[in-house]
Design goal:
The protein is built from twelve helices and 20 strands. It has two domains: about 325 residues, Rossmann fold; about 100 residues, ANL, C-terminal domain (GMP Synthetase, Chain A, domain 3), CATH 3.30.300. By secondary structure, it is α/β, with parallel strands linked by helices. A hairpin with a 7-residue loop joins strand 1 and strand 2. The protein starts with a helix and ends in a 6-residue tail after the last strand. About 30% of the residues lie in helices and about 25% in strands. Strands 3, 4, 5, 6, 7, 8, 9, 10, 11, 12, 13 and 14 form a twelve-stranded mixed sheet that branches. Bound molecules: 5'-O-[hydroxy(phenylacetyl)phosphoryl]adenosine (DLL). The site of 5'-O-[hydroxy(phenylacetyl)phosphoryl]adenosine has 21 residues, from helix 6, strand 7, strand 8 and strand 12.
């Protein structure tokens, strides 16, 4: 069966494929990966106990910590001579982790990206500007291979050097842009400021690697005159393309012939009913070099049980709001930075830009919660008197959504540092203070 037809396979046949692949993955991992074997032995489980996806929940979880404990290659299931490439992720905290791919793994990865690109209308006639970072980060090389696979012309510019990015986009006739949404927004702002939109041929954007709101999507689409699609993934499971949106822009299809998603309660580890919000967990079905079994992503989201109008049978996931590690606890209330972005863009119009920074501190035993939001150039120039009014509107919007008050400060245009990769939205100075 070729991989394109697998996207539309009926659920029953898909389950049969998953069963066979799961049994094989468990067996291989048990034989070849010490960490997994020990964990199975601890709970008295052997590979023969796993007959199909209905037995998935019997299997032990795996964690980011395992990658650190077995750094660099201790979790690989293939000898290094079969490992064609490694990538690594520094993460926001702690020691970096290393992941590996065989030639077949790289092929499967390119295939996942190509599926999404084809679906959203990328063809061999397109010029795909890859503005994700190339290097140990999975973004650049991952998306690159998918675009090459469908025969598009790839512009492997990597991230950074914004003036050069824009010039290249114009001169080389880029029609597709791939980057983080925050970098796309930065590029869009610069293009608008320089009045260069008319010289662009862009029509499609593929953005991911960090949470972004529907409001942000709208803003990027309008500013660049494109359709923007969400792509999800994580290094531990593969990289970009574990899931991606179709043309309906309503949730990302998880490529279930390669990955099984589960949503669990992060505290108890119990599997939650379909549609509930919880922690996303992945099991890989075809990866050779670095199989993952019930890997705890820390990403909080839900799966979408309804069928997609595009006809694909593979389940969709909602945009993750953020990682549970990114969740802030402010005066006892749980807050995701992405919720703040949503409010900012919803309650205000052209007064502000989606550039913001959250600053947390602790004074006299109480958390302080400040948000700096950049004004737009136009608002800054025309309407300096309305600043207080806008600050008040945003503060009220945040209070009604989050349930706590923040001090909102409108700051000068371009005063918050731009990111060329994932944006740094939070400065938390509370560590060690009472
Ligand atoms: O960010 C892989 C990637 C590259 C995905 C390019 C998409 C595009 P890591 O650096 O390991 O890998 O970070 C993975 O980023 O667990 C999520 O928390 C977050 N993330 C990735 N894509 C999305 C998305 C890459 N579309 C972590 N929406 C994941 C929200 C995302 N969060």
């Amino acid at each position: 069966m070729n991989s394109a037809s697998l996207e539309y396979t009926d659920r029953e046949s898909l389950k049969a494929i998953q069963d066979e692949r799961l049994i094989n993955t468990v067996k291989r991992s048990y034989e070849r990966v010490e960490c997994f074997r020990l964990r199975m032995q601890e709970i008295g489980l052997i590979p023969d106990d796993i007959h199909g996806t209905e037995d998935l929940a019997k299997l032990p979880f795996s964690y980011k910590k395992d990658l650190r404990d077995y750094y660099p290659y201790g979790l690989f299931a293939e000898p290094m001579e079969n490992v064609a490439r490694v990538h690594a992720s520094s993460g926001t905290t702690g020691k970096r982790i290393v992941v590996g791919y065989t030639k077949n793994d790289l092929e499967m990865w390119a295939d996942c990206i190509a599926r999404m690109m084809r679906e959203v209308g990328v063809t061999e006639k397109d010029f795909v500007q890859v503005s994700f970072g190339y290097g140990l980060f999975t973004g650049g090389f991952g998306v690159h291979a998918g675009a090459e696979k469908i025969g598009a012309t790839v512009i492997p510019i990597s991230s950074g050097n914004t003036a050069n990015q824009i010039q290249t986009m114009i001169d080389f006739g880029a029609t597709v842009l791939c980057s983080t949404p925050s970098y796309a927004m930065y590029l869009a702002e610069e293009i608008e400021r320089l009045g260069l939109k008319d010289q662009l041929k862009l029509r499609i954007g593929i953005f991911g690697a960090e949470p972004w709101s529907e409001e942000m999507r709208g803003k990027i689409e309008r500013t660049l005159g494109i359709k923007a699609y969400d792509i999800y993934g994580l290094s531990e499971v593969m990289g970009p393309g574990v899931a991606g949106e179709c043309r309906f822009q309503n949730g990302m299809h998880v490529w279930e012939d390669n990955f099984i998603p589960e949503i669990i309660d992060p505290d108890t580890g119990d599997v939650l009913p379909l549609g509930a919000t919880g922690e996303l967990v992945f099991t890989s079905l075809t990866k050779e070099a670095f199989p993952v079994i019930r890997y705890r992503t820390r990403d909080i989201c839900s799966l979408i049980p309804e069928k997609c109008p595009c006809g694909r049978t593979h389940i969709r996931m909602h945009k993750p709001q953020g990682r549970s590690d990114d969740m802030l606890i402010i005066r006892g209330v749980n807050v995701f930075p992405s919720q703040i972005e949503e409010v900012l863009l919803k309650v205000s119009g052209k007064e502000i830009t989606p550039n913001y920074q959250i600053i947390l501190d602790r004074v006299n035993n109480t958390d302080t919660f400040d948000i700096n939001v950049e004004m737009s150039d136009a608002f800054f120039a025309d309407d300096i008197k309305s600043i207080e009014k806008t600050e008040k509107t945003i503060t009220e919007g945040l209070r009604s959504t989050l349930g706590i008050g923040a001090k909102v400060h409108l700051v000068n245009p371009k005063s918050i540092v731009r990111s060329e990769g994932k944006a740094k939205r939070v400065i938390d100075n509370r560590q060690g203070k009472i």
